[in-house]
Amino acid sequence: MTQRVLTMSLPSSVDVAVIGAGAAGLGAAHALQRAGLSFVVLEARDHAGGRGHTVTAAPGIIFDLGCGWLHSADHNAFVKIAEQLDFAIDKTLPPWRDRIAVGTAFPPDERADFLRSLDEFFNRLEDAAKSGVDHPANSCLEPGNRWNPMIDAISSYINGCETDRLSILDFDAYHDTNLNWRVRRGYGALMEAYGASLPLAFNCKVALIDHSGKRLRIETSQGTLSADKVIVTVPTNLIAQEAIRFSPALPEKVDAAAHLPLGLADKVMLALDGAEHLPADGNLRGMTMRTEMGTYHLRPFGQACVEGFFGGRFAQALEDAGDGAIAAHAIDEIVSFLGSDFRRKLKPLKESRWAHDPFALGSYSHALPGHANKRAVLATPVDNRLFFAGEATSTHFFSTAHGAHDSGERAAKEAIQSLSFRDGA
């Protein structure tokens, strides 16, 4: 795959500069390309896709370090994009409802009771949201329910945070059609292919967006350029920490981003010897009765591997423990579920450490309790010259790649309309 990499020859001037080549930036760029505008996408990484990144963890084993599922596939723009780019879609049912559960560490009757309690918790969340008054989601936990710690663990996988940091109104606003597919060659690989025809400037860190003059001035690690419009698609944690500065300052945007922090959901890929003895696309989870736990996808796509998931504060603690800590814990936990013989069958291949990724500092956004309205605040243009996109600005599909993509298209349309108005069209 060949992408147009701009190194030392940034254009001095464009109609629109897009900051970030993740799903939102790519969606915006394609919309600008269709409109015939001059533009460039400025990306700090050395590849497109942002928090969507596919690697070959071992020969024959592909691994999506970030997003891996085409959530709400019947409303997901990347389904059509995959078809156009000849990327095969796998429609195997996801394992997370214990479709094929393995091992005796979580007996079937106990699993059924846990899933019943989980569903009742979600129903209470939905009922509580009808009041229109926001609260932390842990207020909907049933007092004394023995499954509460594990419900918190599920929240950490879904939202990147435990229920005490989750807005009820924000969670309820998410639209899920419960149709979840996968890209056989990798979601991140699909994004890179989607960006292949675009003018992408890699290894190009943006330091300052000066919107004080007639045209916007963008200072980058590769030089300075000017633009009539800028579309900002970087993760909220970077905006909140002012990794990119605005002049004049935009305290309302910084505040909105701070209240839409990126939670943490990490993955680990383990090679599995003797994989034929475990079912493809199986689920492994123990009745741990604690939040500090992983959940495991056995043999995704039938590959000889195990994919593990960790979220929230526990994922942060594992990351902070250093490289290899996630894999080490995953192996210990799987061995405790399946027996000591599995220790020699499992080998660490690759793990994500999104909190330590300097261009993300987390996985995907959640609204803190009382701040569900901040998504709209972050998405609002500034002076019809600065536009904001990214999954955190999506009203109903936040935390997803397709929500990010659609927000990029929305921001591009806003920029195009403002240019047309300027030109008297």
Walk me through this protein's architecture.
The protein is α/β, with parallel strands linked by helices. It has helices spanning 23-35, 77-84, 108-129, 148-159, 168-173, 187-194, 236-240, 251-258, 312-320, 325-338, 374-379, 401-422, and strands spanning 4-5, 13-19, 39-42, 54-58, 61-64, 69-70, 89-90, 181-183, 199-201, 206-210, 216-220, 223-232, 245-247, 262-263, 265-272, 282-284, 295-298, 305-311, 346-351, 364-365, 386-388. Strands 1, 2, 3, 9, 10, 11, 12, 13 and 21 form a nine-stranded mixed sheet that branches. The chain has a five-stranded antiparallel sheet with strand order 16-17-18-15-19. Strand 2 (13-19), helix 1 and strand 3 (39-42) form a beta-alpha-beta unit. The longest helix has 22 residues, at 108-129.
